[in-house]
Amino acid sequence: MNSAEFFRKKAIVWLRFIGIPIAAILFYLLFFWSLPDEYLYLAPLIEGWPIWTNYVLDIVVAIIGSVLISELILRLMFALEHIISWRRHPAWRLVVQLMATVVLSYIVVYVCYNLTPAAPSKADPSALFDDFVLYSVIMGLGFNGVFIGIMLFEEWIASSLEAQELKAQTAKAQFEALKAQIDPHFLFNSFNTLVALIATDTEKATAFVEQMSRVYRYVLETRSQDTIPLADEMAIAQDYIQMLKIRHGDRIHVELPLTPWPPVLLAPMTLQLLLENAVKHNGFSAAKPLIITIMIDGNTLLVSNPITPRSSKEASTGMGLENLSDRYHKLSPKNLTYTQDGNVFCVKVPLLA
Fold first, then answer.
1. How far apart are CA 231 and CA 214, in angstroms?
2. Whether the Cβ atoms of residue 252 and residue 284 lie closer than 8 Å to each other
3. How far apart are CA 353 and CA 330, in angstroms?
4. Of the options 3.40.50.620, 3.30.565.10, 3.40.50.1000, 3.30.70.260, the CATH number for the domain spanning 183-350
């Protein structure tokens, strides 16, 4: 149980056993003192009892009615949350909830009024019933305000916790990306490639260093960002792809769409992690190159590759895709998913508006 749920449960328990009975008594006293003299009782409800017992019985009925109204409103709120969410349709939710509160308050008052015997008074029964309905509706709306306040405060606590968790997950994912790039084995291969290029092709060596520096600079610059434009991610991904191609030659081929990138967002280093994941977990050769396809399908970025198991597996924590999926779960209601359809592994990344 997180702190938001703990707060909500504690607040509701306190309201049920303390807040609502006190509110019922205060509303009854307000109702009593606002009535004209003809509403006062003329005789006790139970023969032989003092007349003040009528008011005690009224308070008991008021408490019971208030508890019924509050519980019905609470159940209504939980039921409506699955039909009309506050986050998606706040205006409709408010209208429906307030209208339902008025109806429920009227029903409770009607039942209590008709099941409770009335003591003799000068009051007009219909006028008295109307006053009961008015005060009960006011009380029901007050309960609504309190419950909505509790819910909003719970949402605020939950949002704060999610923001903290997102920050932690982002830092963890960034660490995975940095570790994947600055891993000694990766650097060793990169420097070996660089040394070989310096000896044979200084122009390519210069390009390799420039691309590597851009990739590392991008990693450092995006450490504090939750999302970045897709165009920026694609630009740095092309540098990383060129590094892979210089390092592995024709054994790796990445297919990119030629259309302009839409103005959408995604988490930093998404493509770098997915490309690194494909290279790490698949075997490839000049005869059978690894083909990685990147394409956009609606509001989803697809990264796929044929599954070609390596003869020897590299050491891996298995946390790369899981961390990336967790980050998107915090950023969007649409989750990052990955599937294996036959011999093709595909990662579906939701693009953020």
1. 15
2. yes
3. 14
4. 3.30.565.10
- The per-residue pLDDT for range 235-275, each reduced to its tens digit, is 888 888 888 888 888 899 999 887 788 899 998 888 988 99
pTM over 0.70: no
Burial class (CB in 10 A: 0-12, 13-18, 19+), 108: buried
Query: What tokens appear for 31 in the block?
Result: 């109702």
How is the chain split into domains, by residue range?
A: 3-163, 183-350
Q: What is the CA radius of gyration of the chain?
A: 34
Measured at the CA of 178, the angle between CA 186 and CA 168, to 5 degrees, comes to 155
From 36, 39, 76, select the one nearest 54 (Cα to Cα): 39
SS (H, E, C) the chain: CCHHHHHHHHHHHHHHHHHHHHHHHHHHHHHHHHCCHHHCECCCCCCCCCCHHHHHHHHHHHHHHHHHHHHHHHHHHHHHHCCCCCCCCHHHHHHHHHHHHHHHHHHHHHHHHHHCCCCCECCCHHHHHHHHHHHHHHHHHHHHHHHHHHHHHHHHHHHHHHHHHHHHHHHHHHHHHHHHHHCHHHHHHHHHHHHHHHHHCHHHHHHHHHHHHHHHHHHHHCCCCCCEEHHHHHHHHHHHHHHHHHHHHHHEEEECCCCCCCCCEECCCHHHHHHHHHHHHCCCCCCCCEEEEEEEECCEEEEEEECCCCCCCCCCCCCHHHHHHHHHHHHCCCCCEEEEECCEEEEEEECEC
Q: Which two tokens stand for residue 284?
A: 């490839």
Name the amino acid, one letter, at 265: L
Cα separation of 299 and 262, whole Å? 10
Residues of the chain with pLDDT under 70: 1-7, 35-40, 117-125, 127, 171-190, 312-320
Direct distance between the N- and C-terminal alpha carbons of the chain, in angstroms, rounded to an integer: 32
Are residues 83 and 103 in contact, defined by beta-carbon separation less than 8 angstroms?
Answer: no
pLDDT score at 179: 46
